[in-house]
Amino acid sequence: MVKDEILGLVDKGLMLPLMEEFYTIQGEGFHKGTAAYFIRVGGCDVGCHWCDVKESWNAETHPPTGIEHIVNNAAKYSDTIVITGGEPLTWDMGPLTTALKEKNLKTHIETSGAYPLSGQWDWICLSPKKNKLPEGIIYEKAHELKMIVYNKHDFIFAEEQAAKTNKDCILYLQPEWSVKDKVTPWIVDYVMKNPKWKVSLQTHKYLNIP
Question: What does the record give as EC number (predicted)?
């Protein structure tokens, strides 16, 4: 297949720059502790300085992979599929989620919302970043809002973002891992004073699993 043909299929969402795929325990947010198959798609220009998957940023370093291959692999492991990145909404998620739905799989996404929402989702975890704010209707559609706390200003940003979400959206504050010892007590105190929020921890890192 020639390069232009591959790029055309990527643009249509029929191939995606696949960084990795793995079966593990969801470590964060509402579904923490449950088994899920993760599909990590390359490509992200949001540029969080504390990102722990910076190798996902350059989509060109990850091979364009047909969605049929991705879906067939996922179906072997779990009925819950988590699409993450990178920033998965960089790409058209419609074809991938349609194919997953045809196999009766539940589709979850973890996204900054920096690009327009595409695809069919059973669960949307929205995690906005200051560098590139969410677009369009995703605030209305998000099931959970996961705000990463690196410094005290992040509480102000979290409240600004929470004010844009729908009334049923579950609100989480999560310490950024590299400063967790410093910021976790801040989060605990904040949640106790503002109980509309919940604490989210990266439990998979405490369990030492992917």
Answer: 4.3.99.3
Residues of the chain with pLDDT under 50: none
The DSSP 8-state label assigned to residue 132 in this structure reads B
Model pTM?
0.95
The annotation status of 45 as a binding-site residue, yes or no, is no
- Is 169 known to sit in a ligand binding site? no
Quote the pLDDT of residue 2. 75
Q: Are 53 and 66 in contact (CB under 8 A)?
A: no
Architecture of domain 3-206: Alpha-Beta Barrel (3.20)
pLDDT of 7 reads 84
DSSP string, 172-201: EEEE-GGGHHHHHHHHHHHHHHSTTEEE--
**Residues found in the chain:** 210
Q: Is 44 annotated as a binding residue?
A: yes
